[in-house]
Design goal:
101 residues, single chain, mainly alpha
């Protein structure tokens, strides 16, 4: 059964607990960097198909982290919006060194 969260503030600690493995966090970070780079390419090339590559890059890296290193089911399947926000919050927190790289 899926746990319910009243707010993102309540969800984020759970999200971080699902990303305890350093390799998984690194894969998420790399995937997010890829998403940003491919979004820039999509805009520069005026070709929306690059956005499909961005989605594949972001989710592909994250899901490899979950299935191969965390050995858990991605939170995206249960909490898609909070999970999307959690990924970018974790990206920010890694950049700010609040979470170990």
């Amino acid at each position: 059964m899926s746990r319910r969260f009243a707010s993102f503030r309540e969800f984020y600690p759970f999200y971080l607990s699902e990303h305890a493995n350093r390799t998984s966090r690194r894969l998420h970070f790399a995937g997010s960097c890829g998403v940003l780079a491919l979004a820039v390419v999509a805009i520069a090339a005026a070709d929306w198909r690059w956005l499909l590559a961005a989605l594949a890059c972001g989710y592909g890296c994250a899901w490899i982290g979950h299935f191969c290193f965390e050995r858990n089911r991605p939170a995206t399947f249960r909490h898609p919006l909070y999970s999307f926000a959690g990924d970018w919050a974790m990206f920010r927190d890694i950049l700010l060194r609040r979470i170990p790289w």
